[in-house]
Amino acid sequence: xxxxxxxxxxxxxxxxxxxxxxxxxxxxxxxxxxxxxxxxxxxxxxxxxxxxxxxxxxxxxxxxxxxxxxxxxxxxxxx
Length: 79
Description:
Blueprint: H1 23-40, H2 51-61, H3 63-73
């Protein structure tokens, strides 16, 4: 059994965004959805629904992004 980085996809109110994907990336999403479905004992999910959790996972695990975000959002102290 593969150790995939994504788990079940949560339902949430979406914001509509239109994106063009390279065909090779779309094929990878289809394959990923198939593997994820097999591991969960479910039919494959719509591969487009994988994009949000993948982006969320990427952002959540990007340490440099987190560091930069803290720097930007932390109030500057006056001297």
